Structure formats: C-alpha cells, structure tokens
C-alpha cells in the first residue's frame, strides 16, 4: 500500500525570513509585494503585526505609516521574495533526505509544503507515528513550525495537513473536525497519521479548498453551495468534468487515489564543461595554462547563478597520437575562486608533464555542491575557535603538490588502547559536520605527544606495585616530584592477547611531565607520552 507524507510550513515566507534573519523571528513583520495594478500591498503579516493594525492587501504606504507609529514595537516592513522562499524550501527537501528518497516541494508559484513518498520507510523508524514525530522534532530544533500528515495519497495527506484536526472525543471512529488557517494564525505543530482505508472518511468533512483547486473553481462551488468534499461524492466524474473541467476531477481523483500522483524529481542539471581546440598541436605549458584559465572562467560563470561551487574538476587532454590523457583535482570544500582553481591545475600539470602535444582540452566540473554562506566576524575573538574552511585552500595546494594520500587527518576510534585510539585518513571534504564520529569518554587528560610504540624505562618504587619515585630514560635519571594515578586501561577479551596497564602522570624535579605505565603481566615500566 502506497503511503504519502505532507509537511506543511504555515506562513513559510515569514518563517523563512526568521530563519535567515533571527532578529525578526519574534518581531511584528509585514511582507509587501506588487499586486497587479494596485501597487505595493501587504501579502503576508505575522500575528504580532496584525495586532498592531496591519491587514492583508493593505497598501504599503499605510503599513509604513503604522511602522512609524508603532516603532517601539519594532514593526518591520520587508519585501516578499518568492524566489528565496522556494530556494530555501528546496534546501529543506534535501535536508530531509533521511526520511524518504523521494521528496519534492509542492506545485505552485509559492510552495509552502514538502511532499514525500514514505512507502516502506516506516520500518526504519519503528512505525509511521515515530517517523512523523522525529521529522517534526527535526524542524522544531530549528525553531520552525510544521504540520505533518501521513495518508494513502498525496492529495489526502496535503488536505489533512492543511485543514484537518483530529476530534479527540471520536478518534476511534476516525472523525475529523474542520478548521481554516489565515495568514498570521497560530497553527499547532502536530502529526496526523491516517490509517489505511480511512482516507475517504478523513476527506469527507474537509472544505473543498483542501482539493488544491484554483480560486475560480472555489467561487463557482461556493455559489452552488458545495463547500465540503463529502458533497461532491454523489456526483459523477463526468458531470463534474462537464461543469467544472478537468482540474477539479483530477484533484478529486488524486485525493481519493483514483488518479496516480507520482513524485517526479526534476532532471539533474548536466555537468558543466568547457572545450578548446587548437589549430596545431601545442606542447607549451604556458599556452596550456592560459587556455585552462579561460576555460575555468567560463565554468565559473555558468555555476555562479546556480550558487554552486566545484568539488571535482576533470581535465581531458586529446593528444596528437589520438590518445587521451585524463586527470582530475578534488577540493575539500566547494569553491569558485578562479585564482585558486587555476593554481591547483597548474600544480597538477607540474606533476604530470606532457608526453605528447595536445590537440584539444575539455574541462568538466563533474562534482559540484552548494556554496555555503558564512557571515564574517568583525573580531576573531568572537568566533570561539578556528574556521575549518580557512584550511581548505592550503589543503588543496598540498594535495595538488604532494598527492591525494599525502595529506591526512586524525580520526578518533573507540579503542581503550591509546596507540590504537586514532587513525589517519586522507582529507576528502571539510565543513560538513561530524555526524557519526566517535567521541570517546576520557577519564583523564591525555598527552599531546604520544609515542607510536611505548619506550621501556627503568623504574624505582618505594614499595612493590607502588607509585614510581624515579626512572632512567635516554641515559638520564629523572626524579619524580608529583604523581597522579593510577588509571587502569584494559582491552576486551575479543582482542586475543589482552592489554592491561596502570598509567601514571608524573612531574619531574625539572618541571617536565610524562605519561608512564606499568604492564601488569610482568610489572615492566614504559614511557608512552609527554605533556607540553
């Protein structure tokens, strides 16, 4: 059985504005836009703004006068930006890829909802209710108000999310109460799951607006007294199509499951590429670099309107002997910097000198990603730490000169044995967060410098198995002034030969601090690290 989910974001233009500008989240806000020949009018307003006298379709001049009158309430007049609303909604659709492989914004000029095919996805979340609750919690953490409905069809899910509130007193019968939502109304964040076979009963009491039909059809239906979906059930599709046309019949059929409504994702944009052909074979690296720079300019110009940066750039060289030489550069973060990309290609050319003259060149941006917009801080002290993106150009240059596997980053691992609690992997991408990275619990501080293999030392203790007093290492005798420990570290039985150690932090008379341990099976002492 097919299952569909609708996630509705009431007053999405206002919510999107609060998401991008947090200072406006709780302030009274009105959005203005041109309305045909009526000039600038208010098209959206928050509940706080409506309480100050702002109303829909109010002239912008009147709203501005109210803003001056109520300046103590911080009434804000902003321009409505449908393009930014749609772009952010598409980003949220990608952000929700955890819940469904098929997610799209709804149709229309100003979408406010996401439609998902969740058939079979409930198995990953132990039921549809938990799936919906987890999805709502994800939006709640970003301070977004959302309503979720799951039903057998997209039309039913959309209708219930927008117009259905469960009647708690008759929930066992599957009855639903009606409601209408206006701009600025407070909408409870809730999740409604329609059981299989109950879609028709959930639709019956809802208003005809829940069918997603154009306004002109709603006016005609209202004049005929047809205000609820249940009043359309006795009518045949033929009579409805003859009087109201195909849009009403199609939407009604989609809501009842008689007409399919598949989610068809947009065709992915083809990879951006640029080509150059020479009249005669060229073997000069200076000429190749100049041509490559021109080709990169063209690729950057095509990617800029899409707000995407390059993550992998492939270079295809067609040589005079009909052979092809192909190589690529990969970036750790998306970039459209012409200077930086040109430098990386130059470094790659230096590592792979030309074997034969070149007849043509093709540059292909085979992997792209949205460019991240980050607000710069006026003072570095406010950032609270280093910016990982600042290392991107340096890492790219090192990889271009030394190779992809020459630049490594440490990764922590869940291992009690200190020398195995870290591994080194090639740096592939930065700035994407660290979901799933292990963060071990550390019972005590660890030394910054840890030896890959512990070094045996001669130790003197006052009593057997007691704390150390002095030790000899590297031909010198070190007297211990302070001792912290022991801290016992053991590995699991599944590792074969178990590791059992008692670690001590010691401070010598010269002020140096070391990390020592006693191996329990033979009472031998080792130096494992030092503190700076």
Per-chain topology:
Layout: E1 4-8, H1 12-20, E2 29-34, E3 40-45, H2 47-51, H3 60-69, E4 76-79, H4 82-95, E5 103-105, E6 113-117, H5 128-140, E7 147-151, H6 154-163, E8 164-166, E9 176-178, E10 191-193, H7 199-203, H8 215-223, H9 237-244, H10 246-256, E11 272-282, H11 285-303, E12 308-319, E13 324-335, H12 338-351, E14 358-370, H13 392-402, E15 408-412, E16 422-426, E17 449-461, E18 468-473, E19 476-490, E20 500-508, E21 513-519, E22 524-531
Parallel strand pairs: 2-4, 7-10
Antiparallel strand pairs: 1-6, 1-7, 2-3, 5-6, 8-9, 11-14, 12-13, 12-14, 15-16, 17-18, 17-22, 18-19, 19-20, 20-21, 21-22
Helix pairs in contact: 1-4, 6-10, 9-10, 11-12, 12-13
* Rg from Cα: 33 Å
Residue stretches low in confidence (pLDDT < 50, at least 5 long) are: 169-175, 180-184, 381-385, 432-441
Shape call: extended
DSSP strand count: 22
Structural class: alpha+beta
* Lateral arrangement of strands in the main beta sheet: 17-18-19-20-21-22
Taking the alpha carbons of the first and last residues, their distance comes to: 63 Å
Name the average pLDDT: 82
Largest sheet: 6 strands, antiparallel, barrel
Percent of residues in beta strands: 25-35%
* Number of distinct helices: 13
Helix content: 25-40%
Question: What would your notes on this structure say?
Answer:
The structure is a single chain. This protein is of the alpha+beta class. The chain contains 13 helices and 22 strands. It has helices at residues 12-20, 47-51, 60-69, 82-95, 128-140, 154-163, 199-203, 215-223, 237-244, 246-256, 285-303, 338-351, 392-402; strands at 4-8, 29-34, 40-45, 76-79, 103-105, 113-117, 147-151, 164-166, 176-178, 191-193, 272-282, 308-319, 324-335, 358-370, 408-412, 422-426, 449-461, 468-473, 476-490, 500-508, 513-519, 524-531. Strands 17-18-19-20-21-22 form a 6-stranded antiparallel β-barrel. Strands 5-6-1-7-10 form a 5-stranded mixed beta sheet. Helix 11 (285-303) runs antiparallel to helix 12.
